[in-house]
Each structure stands twice: as structure tokens, then as C-alpha cells.
Specification:
- By secondary structure, the chain is of the alpha/beta class.
- The protein has helices at 3-6, 17-24, 53-56, 64-70, 86-100, 111-114, 123-138, 154-158, 166-182, 197-201, 209-229, 242-263, 287-302, 343-355, 371-390, 433-444, and strands at residues 46-50, 104-108, 142-148, 188-193, 269-274, 277-280, 307-312, 315-319, 322-323, 359-364, 395-401, 420-422, 429-431.
- The protein is built from 16 helices and 13 strands.
- Helix 12 packs parallel to helix 13 (287-302) and helix 14 (343-355) runs parallel beside helix 15.
- The protein is globular, with a radius of gyration of 21 Å.
- The structure holds beta-D-glucopyranose.
Length: 447
């Protein structure tokens, strides 16, 4: 997609300080002109980038996802393997965050490394994550710690995963333990990552067989994983029983929140939600129903929290039968989402209106092999975010997904979300122009 197309006609008036700053930093200017009035972000605004343990560490072999990646049939294009080897290279990653000029690193801790068997706690792994927090502090970076990012120990999946209500308490026990060791270095924390995403899937059946096939493929994979692990039911995170999962996950969030706060009451804790920008099309659109069904319970549950994490990647158009395909001619990212950066501003408004909470943009980004498209995307997304801030939405930070090109779950390593590329064999990291671009905005402090 050409960067010209990314421009919203109404916003092309003013060329401003942003260009000068980027230029003075010696960075290539994006082809389009920066053309808006720049507004300062609120005091204490967090500028960050994110990863998740399973997507970057490598060899998380005691996890449920590792099992799922290795059975046949599987929904994974390829296994995570060594990922970005961040388990060993985390200091290099954190140093890059600092070098870019960002002040926050959102990363997750891997429950399956810390508790590989029920009740067996690895002090060495707790120390590892403690060192990560300390390393962030050493580099002037604030740790934003996610306690659960999709992945659980395989023993949890073998005990029914999030379909088993008792696992909420097991998660809370893990939160207590981890918070005791790690909370003192944390700046902010999240219990769960996108626990609402499973609810979204059931809406996608209006888009055709692809999604129904995905559901049955997950079920076949769960059967294979149960057999491989000798369990009655191996419950994968992205299964189709979203009602039962939601009940357990809400309980897990609430108990996890209480457990973390009990260890450190002044640590801001929230839940990070997948807030797609649902937009109605036509008079008979089911948009209100979709919003209520996907977000309703979670916006309510997030009120047990000090902020709400908003993760937004695009909009979804909703017609009379549910989600519609991406409009003809619209640009799409390499994971098939419409390139629609204005969705971020809409998503933070929606989340704040529904919860009354301060909003942390805990993820926003685009899968593309063309880094100039990422630069243009960041620019537009931040413009919309700036408008929301101007209109009074209390936004406490912007965390870009992702620091690194990494393991994009079922899609494997093809989609590139990173501000930094990673050589798949040598693990050498190379900063992309988009990384410097976001860093320059962070240093400038206006959007
Ligand atoms: C997840 C990330 C994922 C990203 C891009 C979010 O749903 O939290 O783990 O890589 O989206 O698809």
C-alpha cells in the first residue's frame, strides 16, 4: 500500500516540528508530510514496546502451546522452536528498547517455566525474571509485566485449561508467588492478555468456512494433544467454548488482581483486552450485539483494575449477519486485517466510555514486510490517539506491538510486526526505521 493512501485528506494541513525533529535526528522522513498540530502527551505517559514470553524466548517446552505445536494435526504453521532466543538475549532486547528512546518494555513471564509441574517451583526461573526487571531498571526502562499471555503450563491444559473453574485459583496462586518476587521492580502489570479474544472468534463464522474449519481443526488438535499427554481433555486457549472460558478467565483476572495487589498494593494492575473497533454497516447491523457480546462482560470485569489495557489492530465492519469481509480495494496487512490505523482512537474511546478507567494502549501495530507502511501506520494511529486525548480520554501510555519480529502464533514466523528484525539463524537484531521513528516521537513527547 502506498504511503499516500495512508493519508487522511482532512489532516494534511500543517507541516510541523515532528518532521524537524526526525530530520535532526538524522532519520529518513516518511514519504508523506507530517501535517498536523502536535500536542504534548500527558505527564508520565509511557512510551513502550512489547513482546510475550512464548513468542520470543524459545524452547518453552513445558507449556501447552509447545505440545499443541508438535502434535498432528496441529493448527500451527510451524513450531516456536528457538523463537528469538530472548531467554538468553533479553539484555540485548532491553538495551535496544532504551536505545530507541522508549521508556517501557512490556513482556510476559512464562508460568510453565516457573511451575513446570503442579507445585514444583523453579527458583532459578523466578530469579531469571527478577533479573529481567533489574536489567530494565539498569537501562532506565520501566517493566510492564504480563502474568499470562495466552500460554499456560501443559499440566493446566491437561486439567481442563480455562474450562476448569479451579484453574482460576491456581493462576491466582501463581500470581501471588510471582508478584512476591517480581512486583518490586515492576512499573505496571497486567493479569491476562486478551482473555476476550476467544469470544471474538464465534462471530467470525459469518465470514465463511475458513473459521468453521479453524474450529474443527482446533478440536482435532486438542484430541491429538490429549492423546500425546495421556490426559482426558487437553484444552487449548483458542477453543470454541467461549462462555465457559470467559467465566473462568474473569475469575482468574479478579483473583489474580487481588493476589498481585496483596503483594504490592501501589502497583497499577489491569487486564489487557482485544478491543477491535466494531463499526456498524447498514440499518440492520448487529454491531451493538457484537460489542455487547465480545466486550460487555470484559469491560465490566476490567473495573476490577486500575486501568484498562486496550489492544487494537484494526476495525471490523459488522453487517446484518455479523462481520463483513474487508471492503473491496482496502489495503490489508499480511495477517489479512484492514489497514485502518484510525481504529486505535476509536478503541480507546470505547474502552474508557465503558469502564471509566484510564487507558493504557498495551498493543497496537501492523504486520507488514514494508517498514514504510509501519511508519505511516504509527503516525496515523498516534494522530487518532492524540485526538482522543484532546477530547479528554485519560491515556497513560502507548505500547507498540512488537519490539521484535517474532513467533506469530498459528501463523508462525512469516508475519512481521517488529520494530526490529531478527535473523532466524544468528538471532542478530537489526533496528528498522520504524523503531527509530517511534523512538523519535517518544523523545519529542508530542503526538
Ligand atoms: C497478541 C499478540 C499477537 C498480536 C498480533 C495480539 O492479539 O496479544 O501476542 O502477536 O496480537 O497478532
Amino acid at each position: 500500500m502506498s504511503s499516500e493512501k495512508m493519508l487522511d485528506a482532512g489532516r494534511r494541513e500543517l507541516i510541523t516540528a515532528g518532521m524537524a525533529l526526525v530530520a535532526s535526528a538524522g532519520l529518513p522522513l516518511p514519504a508523506f508530510a507530517k501535517s498536523r498540530r502536535l500536542r504534548p502527551v500527558p505527564a508520565g505517559f509511557l512510551w513502550g514496546t512489547a513482546t510475550a514470553a512464548h513468542q520470543v524466548e524459545g524452547n518453552n517446552i513445558a507449556s501447552d502451546f509447545w505440545v499443541a505445536e508438535h502434535v498432528a494435526p496441529t493448527v500451527f504453521k510451524e513450531p516456536s522452536g528457538d523463537a528469538c532466543d530472548s531467554f538468553h538475549r533479553y539484555e540485548e532486547d532491553i538495551a535496544i528498547v532504551a536505545k530507541l528512546g522508549l521508556d517501557t518494555y512490556r513482556y510476559s513471564i512464562d508460568w510453565s517455566r516457573i511451575e513446570p509441574e503442579p507445585g514444583t517451583i523453579s527458583m532459578a526461573m523466578l530469579d531469571h525474571y527478577k533479573r529481567m526487571g533489574e536489567t530494565c531498571r539498569k537501562h532506565g526502562v520501566k517493566p510492564a509485566i504480563t502474568f499470562h499471555h495466552f500460554v499456560s503450563p501443559k499440566w493446566i491444559a491437561m486439567r481442563g485449561g480455562w474450562l476448569e473453574p479451579d484453574n482460576a485459583k491456581r493462576f491466582a496462586d501463581f500470581c501471588s508467588l510471582a508478584a512476591r518476587h517480581l512486583a518490586s521492580d515492576a512499573h505496571i502489570a497486567a493479569t491476562l492478555n486478551e482473555p476476550d479474544s476467544v469470544r471474538q472468534f464465534r462471530w467470525f463464522s459469518s465470514l465463511g468456512d475458513k473459521f468453521l474449519q479453524f474450529r474443527s481443526a482446533v478440536e482435532a488438535m486438542e484430541v491429538a494433544a490429549a492423546k500425546a499427554t495421556g490426559s482426558n481433555r487437553f484444552s487449548f486457549y483458542f477453543n470454541s467454548e467461549s462462555e465457559r472460558q470467559t467465566a473462568t478467565l474473569i475469575s482468574a483476572h479478579k483473583q489474580g488482581y487481588a493476589a498481585i495487589k496483596a503483594e504490592r498494593s501501589n502497583l497499577p494492575v489491569g487486564v489487557c483486552l482485544a478491543v477491535m473497533d466494531y463499526q456498524g454497516v447498514g440499518k440492520r447491523s448487529r454491531v451493538a450485539e457484537a460489542r455487547a457480546d465480545v466486550h460487555g462482560q470484559w469491560f465490566e470485569a476490567s473495573k476490577t483494575g486500575d486501568f484498562v489495557g486496550v489492544q487494537n489492530y484494526s476495525r471490523i465492519l459488522i453487517g446484518p449477519d455479523g462481520p463483513l469481509p474487508v471492503p473491496e480495494g482496502a489495503a490489508t496487512s499480511s495477517v489479512g486485517l484492514e489497514v485502518f490505523p484510525a481504529s486505535l482512537g476509536n478503541a480507546v474511546r470505547t474502552a474508557h466510555a465503558a469502564t471509566g478507567l484510564p487507558v493504557l494502549v498495551s498493543e497496537n501495530g501492523i504486520a507488514t514486510n514494508d517498514d514504510a507502511v509501519r511508519v505511516a501506520y504509527i503516525d496515523k494511529a498516534l494522530a487518532g490517539l492524540g485526538d482522543a486525548i484532546t477530547d479528554g480520554v485519560p491515556v497513560i501510555g502507548y505500547i507498540h506491538w512488537s519490539l521484535l519480529d517474532n513467533f506469530e502464533w498459528m501463523s508462525g514466523y512469516d508475519p512481521k510486526f517488529g520494530l526490529v528484525s531478527v535473523d532466524r539463524k544468528s538471532f542478530v537484531r537489526t533496528i528498522k526505521p520504524s523503531g527509530n521513528y517511534l523512538g523519535a516521537i517518544a523523545k519529542r513527547g508530542t503526538i
